[in-house]
Amino acid sequence: MNYRTASERLGKRASKKLGNNTYLQRREDKIAVRLHETDVLTFTPSGRTILASGGWRTVTTKDRMNSYLPMGFAVWSDKGDWSLYRNGSRVAAYRDGLTIGPRGGIHGAASVRETKGRATLKKRITAFSKLCAASIPLDYPDAGDCLYCQLRTEDDQSLGDAMKDTDHLLSHMKEGYVVPSLVWSALTEAGYDPQKQIIHSLVFGGRDDSSFAGVGRAVVKRSVAKYMKRRFNLA
Predict the structure, then answer these.
(1) What's the burial of 108, exposed, middle or buried (CB within 10 Å: 0-12/13-18/19+)?
(2) Res 209 pLDDT > 60
(3) Contacts (Cβ under 8 Å, ≥6 apart) of 69
(4) What integer pLDDT is reported at residue 98 of this predicted model?
(5) 55 neighbors 47 (Cβ within 8 angstroms)
(6) If you write DSSP's letter for every residue of 155-186 in order, what string do you get?
(7) How far is CA 1 from the centre of its chain?
(8) Which residues are 22's β-sheet partners?
(9) 201 pLDDT more than 90
(10) Residue 224: what pLDDT?
(11) Rounded distance, CA 199 to CA 96, Å?
């Protein structure tokens, strides 16, 4: 797809459903493929195509991009690292804002330094998620926790998310500071409802239930890793 074919598909409409949670929508002088709350592809009248994951580097995001990218282009993943391919050959390391020009030129690709930095950050996140898992049972979240992790906005975002601040997360990993509020949010974001499921009671409050301790550690490790990766656009 490109701007011309997208415009033809829309016709006079401002929005058209393409699939599950996916819409083709006009954006002033541009047209976007929107998945949930993210414009994963944006087509411009000049022929440029702009890619963005919104921090959600998921199989679904990649599928929507590949369904509507210009002919010959695709985003493929190798152990979680995305790259842009053209006709089966790798042409660029992915990052949000990567742009395909009207003649196929690539702009805004991640540098080698960025790619190495991402690999290092992934290792730090893995180590931190293991530390969180090994530290259970944890105290319940309280006012003594990191304010960026503990405080919530009216729309139930953490203060850190609302301010798009990841420095405090880097600090927690560097210091080995397991924040109960962060772990609680990670479990909740992973779909574990504290009102309906037992996992929170296994992780918090000092409950001694050795028969399920391994389950709690596994869930915390997986949930914290995903939570952190999403904040650093690695998920």
Answers:
(1) middle
(2) no
(3) 1, 41, 49, 51, 75, 100
(4) 95
(5) no
(6) TS-BHHHHTT--HHHHHHHHHT---HHHHHHH
(7) 24
(8) 19, 35
(9) no
(10) 97
(11) 34
- Give the DSSP letter of residue 14: S
Closest alpha carbon to 166 in 55, 73, 71: 55
Task: Report the distance separating Cα 35 and Cα 179, nearest Å.
Answer: 32
State the Cα–Cα distance between residues 223 and 3, nearest whole angstrom: 38
Q: Tell which wins on pLDDT, 56 or 3.
A: 3
CB-CB contact of 149 with 160 (8 Å): yes
**Residue 99, H or E segment:** strand 99-100
Beta bridge partners of 76: 83
Q: How far is residue 124 from each of residues 134, 168, 170, 190, measured CA to CA in Å?
A: 15, 14, 9, 20
Is 99:89 a contact under the CB 8 Å cutoff? no
What is the rounded CA–CA span in Å between residue 59 and residue 123?
A: 21
Query: Which residue type does 145 have?
Result: D
Residues 6+ apart with CB under 8 A from 173: 124, 125, 127, 128, 228
Strand partners, 39: 34
